[in-house]
Amino acid sequence: MLQFARWKTLTILASVLLALMLALPNILPKAQQDQMASIGIRPMTLGLDLQGGSNLLLEIDKADMAEQLQTLAAGDIRATLREAKIAYSNIARIPGGVSVKISKPEDMEKAKERLNTLLQPQQAGVFAGTAPVNLYALDSVADGYSMKVTELGLEAKVASAINQSLKILAYRIDPSGTKEISVQQQGADRINIQLPGVDNIEDLKKRFTGTGKMTFNLVCEQQPNADGQVPPQDCASYPYKEAYDAALKKKDPSGKTVLLTDAEIKALPKLWVQTSSRSIVDGADLTDAQPGFDQNNNTVVTFKFNQKGALRFGNLTKDNVGKPFAIILDKVVQTAPVINEPILGGSGQISGSYTTEEAGRLSIVLKSGALPAKINIVQEQTVGPSLGADSVNAGFIACLVGLIGVMAFMILPYGFFGWVANAALLINLLILLAAMSFFGFTLTLPGIAGILLTLGMAVDSNVLIYERIREEWRNGRTALSSLEVGFKSALGTVLDANITTLIAAVVLFGVGSGPVRGFAVTLAIGIFTTMFTAFTVTRMLVAIWVQRRRPKEINL
Amino acid sequence: MRWKPFRPVPDGTNLPFVQWSRYGYIASGILCLLSIWLFAYQGLNYGIDFKGGSVITVRTQGPANIDEIRQKLGGLDLGDVEVQEFGGPSDLLIRLEAQVGGPDAEQVAQTKVKETLGSTVEVRSAEIVGAKVSNELTEQAILAVLISIVGVLIYLWARFEWQYAAGAVISLLHDVLLSIGLFSLIGLEFNLNIIAAILTIIGYSLNDTVVNFDRVREYMRKYKSMNMADLLDFSINSVLPRTLLTSICTLIALLSLYIFGGEVIRGFAFAMIWGVFVGTYSSVFVAVPVLMLLGLPREAKRSARLEAEAARP
Fold this sequence. Notes:
The complex is a heterodimer.
Chain A: H1 6-23, H2 30-37, E1 45-46, H3 48-51, E2 53-60, H4 62-83, E3 88-94, E4 97-102, H5 108-116, E5 136-141, E6 144-149, H6 151-173, E7 182-186, E8 190-196, H7 201-206, E9 214-218, E10 235-239, H8 241-251, H9 262-266, E11 270-274, E12 280-282, E13 286-293, E14 299-305, H10 307-319, E15 325-329, E16 332-335, E17 347-350, H11 356-368, E18 375-383, H12 385-414, H13 416-438, E19 442-443, H14 445-474, H15 479-511, H16 514-535, H17 537-549
Parallel strand pairs in A: 1-19
Antiparallel strand pairs in A: 2-8, 2-18, 3-4, 4-6, 5-6, 7-8, 9-12, 9-15, 10-11, 13-14, 14-17, 15-16
Helix pairs in contact in A: 1-13, 12-13, 12-14, 13-14, 13-16, 13-17, 14-15, 14-16, 15-16, 16-17
Chain B: H1 17-41, E1 45-46, H2 48-51, E2 53-59, H3 66-74, E3 81-85, E4 91-96, H4 105-117, E5 122-129, H5 131-159, H6 162-186, E6 189-190, H7 192-222, H8 228-260, H9 263-294, H10 304-311
Parallel strand pairs in B: 1-6
Antiparallel strand pairs in B: 2-4, 2-5, 3-4
Helix pairs in contact in B: 1-6, 1-9, 5-6, 5-7, 6-7, 6-9, 7-8, 7-9, 8-9
């Protein structure tokens, strides 16, 4: 047991050297760090609570999504029945969908056949291996049919919306793609965004409070002349941007709020625009958008269509010269100019009394494409760089003092063996740091607490071994036999004791998030490194000592 | 020169823990009931993780006038606004309750606070937790504590007999109860970090308990005719030096964290320190003596000669 094969000693020494190398970048200046990074050796990643930054949790607005689907269903039903020449009446919104009345009973079968084509089977993907799921379910109701969004269908829609949103959001936050941001899906309908060291967080947040859906609509001939009027069929009612901005400013002078509630919008002056597909060009066909200035030196956003968009936009403007059209962004009328001449080149400009900042933001949003649904911020953590730096310093000092305290306390009862334990402790710490760095785990403030806790608990293995050796020695065994039996019988206990802590750490990792997860990580890695050092490093050092000194008694 | 080692427990110590545990049960019972009462009537000072709302920490230039700031912020019509010192006279923590009025409301409230404080005040951190997220976090936290207790139960059941698993879980519940009782009593902010602390306390207390159990099991095999109470006492006493040394080392590390680790982590460090005390106490005075009450099965006694042989080192 205490005979230590040469190759084992060499392996242990090699792993300590390796750990030393992997942990080294953590104390090197930036220049050397970059050098070492080129061969894949990096320092620990600091969590946002230590380096400063923001962590945002966004959630797809399912209600908004369901409403969109409802509107689409209504439009589809109308178009399909019209095309099939089936007389219908009263397309009404019902909870979770729409219902339609078929005028003649003999059309019922035909209508069912037609409506069945609208159910939109969803891509398997999420439900691989199961039958395809329809987005809508068709049911008979009195004199007609109802079309409701199915639960599984909505889930599939949300899943694909999240997928699209990830890329769009990443672009909106960092158009140049050079910052170290992370945009990740979390759970079924959430997105986690990590922004290290960002200082214009407020501005960034405005980039995803709107979906960025833009359309060019012809304006309805009939316009409202009093508040609260209901627009005719095929027309939709949207507030003007000037009125919208003014109301926002009144609601929150700081300019941080970017949305009004439906009730607040109700009172604003409105423009009615056409909604039939013949009278709309979709902003999704934009290829480029840039902030710029017009001839009067007003801030505008210039845009360029792709071929398809350019063609549609050209036709629409050609057929409607002299009539006004509106540019709608996120359900607000940006501007409603009169078409003076056909716009055939596929490019144009939006002037919506923008500030320079707004125009810059808008062009980023337009270029990124529209988000498939509204997104809400449900959780936000921002730590300033100064607090982060303070935490790093405080954590470092706490670790240092804790380390010295524990080491000093190990000398008191164990003397020489205490030094052995301390050597093991330092190597333990080294391997812990190396593992954190190499595997790219994030160090958070609770993670530092985990390291400290590991410090305190790591010596437990040594204490268990030493106390056992001591007992064996006092029970009358020879020195060598005590050492041997001590190590052997303590092994089981050390394992049992550590596995229980490991269970707690694993549970924490499973359910925790962010900083708390960082604690679980250091605690768990600490348990492994502790078990490793206790049974390799400590044993090796004791074995070397035994070989050199051939002790006849144990002074523990 | 000979090394005069420090021993936390003199050799040959044999304290009658099982006999004392009678008083231990009474004390623990009273404290547990008290904790339940505190939890029921006073409740916990839930942080925004569980309650929703927002927290801002700021640093003022020079010592802050808390009363004035409290008054200013109170006039903003944002519901309950708590202002407290946070680690130093110029550091403040401001807590806002969950706002009504849509997902945007929390953001608006925070901006109002920041603007009211003015530009001379440095915002050091800001945190918002929406109502839906806070409900989920609460569920997760409860789940986490339950899963780890069940996990431990299963592990101990597999490694030991059921009596050990039961004893360990009783002492765990004891630790969790007493921790919650103390947090309620002193109004410690109860957040996710504290849940992490409770889970770690569970891990630590078990660590201690298992080491004691290991020894009990070993002695059960070795001394088959020894009276049960004596055997448990003997086991606890044999492991006592280790119990104390490890607890002291862990306490040294945690105290260092509490004193030097900064205000953000102080609550966690405090919870852990308490946990080490309670965990150590419960292993010795609850977990092992409970084995006596549950009754461990013993193998048939061997002859006295074999017994003596087995007892010889």
